[in-house]
Amino acid sequence: MTALRRLAGSEATAEGWSEAWRQRWSASEVLLLLAATDTAAVEGISAAGATPVSRRQTAAADAELLALGPAAARPHALPPLPAGVTPALISQVALEGLGLQPLLLDLGCPVAPAVPHLRLPYPAGVGAARCLSSGAAMTRQRVEALLALGRRWGERLAAAGRPLVLAECVPGGTTTAQGVLTGLGLEVGGLVSGSLRRAAHALKADLVARGLAAAQLDRLAAADHRGGQADGPSPEVACRAMAAFGDPMQPLAAALVLAATAAEPPLPVLLAGGSQMAAVLALALALAPPEQRPPLTAATAVATTAWVAGEADSDLVLLLQRIGERWGVAPLAFAADLRFVEGCHPALLDYERGYVKEGVGAGGLALLWQLSGRSPEALAAACDRACRSLLGSPGQTGV
User: Fold this and answer.
1) How far is 306 from 379, CA to CA, in rounded Å?
2) What is the pLDDT of residues 313-348, one digit of tens each?
3) Per-domain residue ranges for the chain?
4) Does domain 5-397 sit in CATH 3.30.420.110?
5) How many CB atoms neighbour CB 200 within 10 A?
6) Quick one: three-class SS letters along 258-320?
7) What is the model's pTM?
8) DSSP type of residue 161
9) pLDDT digits (tens, 9 = 90+) for 178-187
């Protein structure tokens, strides 16, 4: 079996985690968390849709593509992108090839997917989070409801013994990730990735700075440090950071990780994504008691695409290193080997040019494909066929 491309974490931990997944991938539970934040409406912040209006239905359109496939008629059109094609295409191809059915969870998107899904009730699923620049993205009540729900679901999954794959679709979510990580006291400027070809670091930093000023979270973090929390911010600071700067995906996902890895033995978790899933891991570590952090870290891995791993404008490895230093652990991360070569549909080749890069669990599901014993080249060929079904051949579309 070809060794996986490890980005971070010890070799021994990586081998143990990957071996557990190789044995149990076919029993995994795949959850796609759909959420929204008004941060996505900021001009120039996201390429998950060419305009703020189009980004309102990105999650619905991606979920429908995931559920119905590229050849089916879908109620919501995919939003136009500056370049490339939605990463939901990669995820759909991988899931179909693996014979896995994802569970779609709508955490309050402005447009609901017109395929079977779960939509959370009040107060967990009450709509988009406010822009993080407000310093009041979500109510504390909503954060606590999402945390409680994530813990209950995580405990049930752990009791069933099914490994957990967490994926997300949250336009603007890399910016809320940067906000939450900053609220936790981490220096992450310039490290967080994004869907744009060139990361909007200055714009993200400005939004986060305005949110920090409005929330005054730095005062609570300083008091927390004086109170003896030298091993990282307390759960109270984590909850405040999510309420101030976060999106609904983060507390639900962090609580799922926390509960799943608290089982005996810990349930393996695959965080399918890049910077956003690094923020989920940081939140789970902040919420966990100190004695739970080592087993949580050993059972959990961030898995992303080769395009995020190799992006010059961000640094996922350094981001994970800073998270690990803050909580005294060594986070585990992998990059899938999926690449698109000459002859693939031009929309797929745009990934190689720096567009899109990740989303809807593409990197993690591509890694799961490898763990099942299939080749990255076979996945690329299947994605090419699916892309031609979705967009037509280049000569037909003028691409």
Assistant:
1) 14
2) 999 999 999 999 999 999 999 999 999 999 999 999
3) 5-397
4) no
5) 20
6) HHHHCCCCCCCEEEECCHHHHHHHHHHHHHCCHHHHHHHHHHEEEEECHHHHCCCCCCHHHHH
7) 0.95
8) T
9) 999 999 999 9
